[in-house]
Amino acid sequence: MSVARRVPDLGALELLLAVVRLGSVGRAAAELGVTQPAASARIRSMERQLGVALLERSPRGSRPTEAGTLVAGWAQQVLDAAQALDAGIGALRERRDGRLRVVASMTVAEYLMPSWLVALHETHPGTAVTLRTANSAAVAEVVRGGDADLGFVEGTRTPAGLNGTVVAADRLVVAVAPRHRWARRRGGVTGAELAATPLILREEGSGTREVLDRALAAYGGTAPPALQLGSTTALKAAAVSGAGPVVVSELAVADELAGGRLVAVPVPELDLRRPLRAVWPAGQRPAGPARDLLALTRRGQPAGPSQQ
After folding, report:
1. Could you tell me which of 168, 148, 191, 175 has the C-alpha nearest to residue 276?
2. Nearest by Cα to 151 from 211, 208, 94, 108
3. What DSSP line would sit under 146-208, residue for residue?
4. pTM, rounded to two decimals
5. Stretch among 81-95, 177-191, 277-291 having the lowest mean pLDDT
6. The HTH lysR-type domain covers which part of the protein (predicted)?
7. Which of these, 241, 225, 224, 221, lies nearest to 233 by C-alpha position?
8. pLDDT tens-place string over residues 259-301
9. pLDDT category, 303, cuts 50, 70, 90?
10. Domain residue spans in the chain?
């Protein structure tokens, strides 16, 4: 039989100590906010559980038996330990609630996270946030390893071992410098033409690369890249300089397209839309600031998690 089944619960021990201190089951019941019959029944149940009488009852009140005095002394130690445990857990909760570790893909970190973190600061100004950036594959590894409270990835599916929910929608854009020959193609380019052209691309493992590779799989996949770069800023700079077509998030090139430094090239045959997801370890739920940040990101998004 386990110790938990042999030892009275904390509420019963607290009641016993109150009776010993106040000399009356009735006064102890009133102090603890229960009825006298309920308190008497609980004392009797504890006596049956322990197999000893704990109180001597008389018209003048109740006082502990010899065994009751011993049990009350041990009960005080148990309650003191429980209070220490509660204080320790409270300190851990305060520490957890005072910090937030986030790891996000480049697109989310650069173009969505700043406004989310500003909103979080307005509602929880005492929260210290640490933000790391990585490609989507690395984000998944960090979250699975327990080194982040919440992650944000790009791509078509929730990574293995994680739960996730869609927090934003995005679309990849093929863009070129204004002097590139594709800039004058009103009908855009075909999927086969895009697949055969050396492009300026993110590295493998990024959400951008995953979506593009999947979209071009029917055309034999992507050609060897003209350039493979690890940052969105570098991708855009290379495309603006005329190094070749770039495939990048629509969020990332909005200013360049508006300013005419890049031109969007349609690819009517391809669906380059992609969801952006918040992710966390499977079997867990975001708590504290991670839960609050997740709520902020999902404002205006469709309800319900996506597990695809």
Report:
1. 168
2. 108
3. TS-SEEEEESSSPPTTEEEEEEEEEEEEEEE-TTSGGGG-TT---HHHHHHS--EEEPTTSHH
4. 0.64
5. 81-95
6. 8-65
7. 241
8. 999 999 999 999 999 999 999 999 899 988 899 999 999 764 4
9. very low
10. 3-95, 98-302
